[in-house]
Design goal:
Elements lengths: L7 E9 L8 H6 L19 H7 L3 H14 L5 H13 L2 H12 L1 E6 L8 H4 L4 E7 H11 L3 H17 L5 E4 L1 H4 L9 H12 L3 H22 L3 E4 L20 H4 L9 E4 L6 H10 L3 E4 L1 E2 H4 L4 H10 L6 E2 L4 E3 L1 H24 L5 H19 L5
Parallel strand pairs: 1-2, 1-10, 2-3, 3-4, 4-5, 5-6, 6-7, 7-9
Helix pairs in contact: 3-4, 4-5, 5-16, 7-8, 8-11, 10-11, 13-15, 15-16, 16-17
This protein binds zinc ion (ZN).
The site of zinc ion has 5 residues, from loops.
Length: about 375
């Protein structure tokens, strides 16, 4: 099933970086690496040795990048050739190059996870409609220094959230519950959060985690009134390997989401919980307030994307699934995310039709929903 002409909303992307207009071949490949370096250069993730960079060039997703860019550029399918051609094109205008890629993949709108101002080059470089999320972490960190009690912090935080949604038109909240606390974190009571404030302000990690979990609970209830979803990384976080990343299984959220006060909070499980992708799909089956986004899985698991797409679609209502990339830095990431999602989705739906598991007409409708319409409905976008 050819889905190339279908429009796409990228439900999860990060800012682009104007300095990445020119990239040598290995640096282009490096854009698709989310691990840590083998050299200690004092930075949190470390630096990559030439031997490790050679491994990065052998990631499956880099092979897919080379194959797809060579097709688009009509050039030989090797990393050096595609890098030379993309640099030749970006030298004539990085924004025009990004616009060409987004048009090629059909990406018409992007939900961006960033604390940059609207007019920052990293956001204006993203073609099409840009939808913003209110970020929990930066808001908490800015207010923690200013406020003198948990009650003051909570009030300031909820004011900022309210203003972002009602005044600035932000379409949701981004939380890092998995990275900061773990999805199995208990929701602290008001007395516990109040007691944690002073220590959190002094930099105590456990106290900060308690404050974060308390404010996450407040975010879930407030977002019901604001009628916007809360986005959470589940599974692979996209790069932070120093937090409680083993506690990112989507099933761990059942403790939160089964509580009566959070049953109508809209929650988007980003990265489809990868590698716990079946758990993410099951969560959308079991919990009426859950949406799942397949960002990061597309494009990063490209060589296995068809099986992943099948697992993603297995148990969830298909009206609760969305496409995303987890892209950042260079526009090729979001472009490849949409391309891989369309290839995988087309393949799964074709098989479903051929096997008698779905009617042809329903399959085309489902493709439109997952690629675009479900997100347009969740964010109440004008048609
Ligand atoms: Zn992400």
């Amino acid at each position: 099933m050819d889905l190339t002409q279908f429009p796409v909303i990228d439900n999860h992307c990060h800012p682009l970086v104007p300095d990445k207009a020119q990239l040598d071949p290995l640096s282009l490949a490096r854009e698709f690496y989310h691990g840590i370096g083998d050299l200690d250069d004092g930075s949190p993730k470390g630096a990559l040795s030439p031997a490790r960079m050679a491994d990065v060039a052998q990631l499956g997703v880099v092979h897919t990048l080379v194959r797809q860019l060579s097709g688009l550029f009509d050039c030989p399918p090797d990393l050096a050739a595609v890098a030379i051609e993309r640099n030749r094109r970006t030298a004539q205008g990085f924004d025009a190059y990004a616009a060409m890629l987004y048009e090629n993949a059909g990406i018409v709108g992007t939900v961006v996870d960033s604390d940059l101002p609207d007019d920052a080059p990293g956001l204006t470089l993203i073609p099409g409609q840009v939808l913003r999320l209110f970020q929990m972490g930066p808001a908490i960190d800015a207010l923690l220094g200013e406020k003198d009690s948990y009650q003051e912090l909570l009030a300031g935080y909820l004011d900022a959230l309210d203003e972002a949604v009602r005044i600035d038109g932000y379409v949701g909240v981004k939380s890092h519950l998995a990275e900061v606390v773990g999805l199995d974190a208990p929701a602290p009571s008001l007395p516990e959060a109040t007691a944690a404030f002073d220590a959190a302000k002094r930099g105590d990690v456990a106290a900060y985690q308690a404050l974060y979990a308390a404010l996450f609970a407040a975010t879930l209830t407030t977002c019901q009134e604001l009628d916007v979803p809360v986005h959470l990384h589940t599974g692979i976080t996209g790069g932070s390997w120093d937090g409680p990343i083993g506690n990112a299984d989507p099933f761990l959220l059942a403790t939160w989401l089964s509580r009566p006060e959070f049953r109508s909070s809209q929650v988007v499980l980003l990265h489809a919980g990868y590698p716990w992708i079946e758990q993410a799909s099951m969560m959308a089956h079991a919990f009426p307030q859950v949406w799942v986004d397949i960002s990061w899985v597309t494009p990063w698991t490209s060589l296995r994307a068809i099986e992943c797409m099948r697992a993603f679609m297995a148990a969830a209502p298909l009206s609760r699934l969305m496409i995303g990339s987890g892209g950042h830095g260079t526009p090729e990431v979001a472009w490849l995310g949409a391309i891989v999602a369309k290839l995988a989705l087309g393949s799964v739906l074709e098989d479903a039709i051929a096997s008698g598991l779905m009617a042809d007409a329903a399959a085309r409708r489902v493709a439109a929903m997952i690629l675009h319409d479900n997100a347009a409905q969740l964010y109440a976008l004008e048609e």
